[in-house]
Design brief:
Elements lengths: L2 E5 L3 H13 L3 E5 L2 H11 L3 E4 L8 H10 L8 E5 L4 H9 L4 E4 L5 H12 L1
Parallel strand pairs: 1-2, 1-3, 3-4, 4-5
Helix pairs in contact: 2-3
Length: about 120
């Protein structure tokens, strides 16, 4: 079973997405802030990380930077799932090593699941 770490500070979205992904057969780990997310990534070594950029304690850019610096986590694919739509944010995230950048408002959960399946093939 593939494990997905979802680092998202909005509990409702985390719960809903978590249920959908579990229904698709994934094991879901959740973190409500960047610090906990980074710890979980290092301890759990998930197959994929869904990462919001606007997070308490450590923002998504910092989390991504730390993930890509660490030998243990640098090869884990990271999907950015955020409301930040600016091209500078997209560029920065991709430069830091994000696999894909999705704006929450533009993607339904089914599309997010399809992206995850595609990356984890």
């Amino acid at each position: 079973m593939k494990t997905i770490l979802f680092i998202e500070d909005e509990p409702t979205l985390q719960k809903t997405a978590g249920q959908v992904l579990e229904g698709e057969g994934y094991d879901i780990k959740s973190a409500l802030d960047g610090e906990i997310g980074l710890q979980l990534a290092k301890n759990e070594k998930p197959d994929l990380i869904l990462l919001d950029l606007i997070l308490p304690k450590l923002d998504g850019f910092e989390v991504l930077k730390e993930l890509k610096k660490d030998e243990v986590t640098k090869n884990i694919p990271v999907i950015i799932l955020t409301n930040l739509e600016g091209s500078a944010d997209v560029e920065k995230a991709l430069e830091l090593g994000a696999t894909t950048y999705l704006v929450k408002a533009n993607y339904g959960l089914d599309e997010v699941v399809a992206k995850i399946k595609d990356i984890l093939k």
